[in-house]
Design brief:
The chain is of the alpha/beta class and 526 residues long. The protein has 17 helices and 20 strands. InterPro entries: ATPase_NBD, Carb_kinase_FGGY, FGGY_C, FGGY_N.
Length: 526
Amino acid sequence: MTRERRRGVLSIDEGTTGTRAAVVLDDGGAAPPAYLPLSVRSPDHLRVEQDATEIWANTVEVCRQALDWAAAHRVEITGVSISTQRATVLLWDTVTGCPLSQAVVWQDRRYAARLREWEPEWDARLVEHTGRPVGSRAPLLWAAEEVAGNAAARRARDEGRLAFGSVDTWLVWKLTGGARHVMSATNAVAAGAYDLRTGDWHEPWVEFLGCPRDVLPEIVDDDGDFGATDPAVLGVRLPILSVMGDQHAAMIALGAHRPGQATTVHGTGTFLDAVAGDRPPVHRRQVPGVLTLVGWRSRGTSVFSLEGYASTTGSAMRWLCEEIGLFDSPAQLAALAREHTGPSRVMFLPALAGLRTPAWSPEATGVLAGLSLSTTRAELARGVLDGFAHSVCDLLEGVEEVMGRQVTDLFCGGGLASSDVLMSAQADLIGRPVRRALGHETASLRGVAYLGGVRAGLWPSVSAAVAGLQAAPVFEPTLSEAERLEARAAWRDLLARHIITAGPGARPPGPGSRGPKPDAQEESTS
C-alpha cells in the first residue's frame, strides 16, 4: 500500500547563538531540527557583534539538511517560514551581496549614553507613536553612523547599492536572490522606529537619527509578500510564507492568542510577552523597559502585545560555564540546583548587559551575593536559577502594572524552561501556576510555521494548529504568601543596593505583589 504523502513547512529559526531548521508537519509537530552554533563577539563591554556571512552560511546548511529529511520521509514542502532574532542589524552591498560591516546584535549598548541625552525631548513622543522610549540602542542611528564613517558603506550608498535591514531582511534578500528588500512588522517594531498606528517607519525619528530613507526596507505583514526562494540557493523554488521575530513566533506556538495570555521564553535573554488586543494599549503607568509591540500582523490586521525582557539570562548561564568555569555546562548547573532543597542564600542578578525592569539602568552590571564559607556549588546553582525566576517576576509585575490587570495564563518555553527547578521557582515567586508548553524548545520554529501554514492552507487558523498538541504541564506554587513576600523583599533590597548608577529613566524597585486584581479596571486601548 502506498503511504500517503504528508505536507509541511520548512521553518528556519535564526537565533542569537544558533541557527535551526526543521520541517513543521501538518499535525503541528516538528521534525528533529538541524542545528549549527553561531559566534557572538564582544570587542568591549558595550559592543556585541556577529558575522552576517556566518549567519547566512549556517542558514543554507541547516535548510539543506531539513529538505533532505523531508525528501527521505516523503513530506511535501509547501513553503518556507523564518523566525529570527530581533533588532540585530547590518548593511550590505546589493551588487556583491556582501555585508559591509559586522552585524550589530540587539544586546549592543554602544549608544546608551548618547541616547540618554535625548530622553527629555523624545521619550513622550516616541512612546505615543512607537510604543517605546528612546532606550539604550538605536539601529537606525548605527546605520547613519556607518554611512558617515564607513567608506565602503558611503560609496555603496552614493552608487545606489546599499541596503539596511535586520536579520530577517538579510535572509529574505539572500533567499530570494536579491528580489525582496523587506522587513516583517514584528521585526520592524523592534528596530525602534515603527509607527504603531500607520504600520510604517516613523519619519520624524528616522530623520532625526539621520538614517537615509532610501536604504530602509519596506515593512510588510508577517504573512505578507516575501517572494520565493531562488532555486540557485536551495535547489527548489518555494514561497516564503511568513517571517516573524522569534518571541512573537513563540507566543503563537505556546498558545498565547487572547488578551491577557502571556509567554515567558528563556533563550539568550528572557522575554515576557502578553497579548494586549487589536489596538495599541494605553500605558496606565510608565514602567521602565515595558514596551508596546506588534504581537503579529496578518492580512493587514495587527494584534498588539506588551513586552518586558532581561537581556542576559541564557547568555549569563553560558558565561558562568564557559567564560568563568564555575560549572561544566548549563546541564550540570541545572542538575546541581536540584540537589539543593529549600531556599538559597545566594542571589544572582543577571544584569550582564544592563537592567531594564524594574529600573532603567543600561550601565548596571551583574551581582552575585550571599556567599559564605558554607556555600556549596548546589546552592550557588540554585541561586542562579532563582535569580532568573526573580527576573521573570519583575517582568510580569511590570507588564501587569502597565495593563492594569493580571495575566490570566503564563506559558513558558525556551531552553532554560527544561529545568523543573526554574519552573517551580517561577511559580513560587509569582504565587501563581505556570505552564511549561510541550515542545517548547521548538516554539519559534513552530509558531512562525503555523502562521505561514494558515496562509498555505495547512490549518484554518493558528489556534487550530496548536489545538492538536498535548496539554502543558502545570507547576503550582509551594511557598506560603509570607515566604514569597519575604523572598521578593530580599530581591528588591539587592536591586536597591546595587542600582546606584540609574539615570533619569530609572525608578527604585517597588513593592512586590501579585499584580492588580483582574477586575480592578477594565482593559482600555487607544
